[in-house]
Amino acid sequence: MKDLFDKIYKDKGPLGKWADQAEGYFVFPKLEGEIGNRMKFQGKEVITWSVNDYLGLANHPEVRKVDAEAAKQYGSAYPMGARMMSGHTNLHEQLQNELAEFVNKEAAYLLNFGYQGMVSTIDALVGKDDVIVYDVDAHACIIDGVRLHMGKRFTYKHNDVASIEKNLQRAEKIAQQTGGGILLISEGVFGMRGEQGKLKEIVALKEKYNFRLFVDDAHGFGTLGKTGAGAGEEQGVQDQIDVYFATFAKSMASTGAFIAGDQEVIDYLKYNLRSQMFAKSLQMQLVVGALKRLDMLRSMPQLKEKLWENVNALQNGLKERGFDIGTTQSCVTPVYLKGSIPEAMALVKDLRENHGVFCSIVVYPVIPKGLILLRMIPTASHTMKDIEETLEAFSSIRERLENGTYKRLSAGVAAAMDD
Ligand SMILES: Cc1ncc(COP(=O)(O)O)c(C=O)c1O
Predict the structure, then answer these.
(1) Average pLDDT value for residue range 127-146
(2) Domain of 84?
(3) Distance between the two ends of the chain, CA-based, in angstroms?
């Protein structure tokens, strides 16, 4: 019989196998200093384009003050226990009410983490007779939630309305046999490439098919819509989203998340969400911090305006210089280049070491072979100088990519990878 750990010793997994070449630089890099437009990487200042602090709240003095005071008052233990048992407070309730109002829903419920909360909400919403229909490019938290489902599930082609309809028809056939219902799950904004989910078109399908819509709006909350209520507000269909989800890990620059919907639905989830029933309540300093951040989202529209000023300057600047930024409809700014993985590694090194620009890099198997995706997250704390310097840097790396410099520089790595 095999030792369970045999596979661990032999195979570190699809990402783990690159650890020797990548760790500390391409993965698990250490960004140091205060969170902002410029941080330190390996002792040198870099312009940071990989931090989801959309509204620049992470290091805002008022936020830092409230966080510090809340930590002083409550410590990191309070309240002890799960919400249902001994971890419930007036401030948890107040935050839920204010979040519900902000996203135009009757009620909301707090989650400790977005990822775990999404998994758990999917689990609570469906039974074995129900059918799930979801986007093939969905975030891992949706895929993992679907994995818990004991019934049928269908993926549709990314943001493809004809494929959504086809899969709703398949789902309907099954649901008619089992006597179950249908849950359709989309993201408000797809975080890798920046397109918004086709919520308007999905909602229109409610005329023909009987399903409930669950939207993960991690990247839309605080950044899209007139008031910042997200992709549903932006597309004019917020009232047709049956369960709305957002995390505090992006615009709110914190930890935690919430779901919102009709009172009866949220009441049901409150009593059936295993991630909250069997885990400690969101700690008080995070609740107090979230109340402050939400207040700033409501009262400081200039934060979102500044964010979009920067998004537009960066995205237009890239387009004017002939870069392919795909079909983004949000702040998420992908830049697609053609090259191999070793070339991508040499390119990112050049960007960081010689141009002081730090952004995330995505390669095969996340995107097709031969493509390099540099993913940039503009925030309200970036300056026009940051943007100009970055655009200059991008023009320079494209030139070096096209004239074969990175191919030459990475020849050794490429040979090692072929081994
Ligand atoms: C689309 C999406 N959903 C859910 C999550 C998970 O949220 P959290 O970081 O709060 O666990 C993320 C990443 O943060 C995300 O990008």
Answers:
(1) 97
(2) 61-299
(3) 30
Tell me if residue 371 falls in helix, strand or coil: strand
Kindly state whether residues 233 and 314 are assigned to the same domain: no
Final residue of a domain: which of 267, 299, 331? Answer: 299
Same domain, 325 and 336: yes
- Judge contact between 215 and 241, C-beta under 8 A: yes
Whether 230 and 188 have beta carbons less than 8 Å apart is answered as yes
Residue 112 resides in a domain: yes
The pair of three-digit structure tokens given for residue 117, joined into one six-digit string: 């909360």
Q: Would you say the CB of residue 115 lies under 6 angstroms from ligand 1?
A: yes
Looking at the predicted structure, is the pLDDT value of residue 412 above 80? no
Residue at token pair 């402050």: 292
Measured by CA distance, the residue closest to atom 8 of ligand 1 is 114
pLDDT computed for residue 118 by the predictor: 98
- Walk across the sheet containing 38-41 and list its strands: 31-32, 38-41, 44-48, 357-358
> Is 375 touching ligand 1 by the criterion CB < 6 Å?
no
Cα 103 to ligand 1 centroid, rounded to whole Å: 18
Give the rounded percent of residues in the chain with a pLDDT score beyond 90.
Answer: 89
For ligand 1, whether the C-beta of 334 sits within 6 Å is no
Which CATH number does the domain housing residue 33 bear?
3.90.1150.10
Q: Are residues 29 and 72 in the same domain?
A: no
> Do 141 and 265 fall into the same domain?
yes
CA of 129 to the centre of ligand 1 (A): 28
The C-alpha R_g of the chain, in whole angstroms, comes to 22
User: What CATH number is associated with residue 147?
Assistant: 3.40.640.10
For residue 139, give the amino acid letter: H
Kindly report whether the global pTM for this prediction surpasses the value 0.90. Answer: yes
Count of domains observed in the chain: 2
**Ligand 1 near 288 CB (within 6 A):** no
CB 232 within 8 A of CB 188: yes
| pLDDT at residue 18 tops 80 | no
Tell me if 1 is assigned to some domain: no
Same domain assignment for residues 112 and 240: yes
Q: Three-class SS of residue 103?
A: coil
- 225 and 104 fall within a common domain: yes
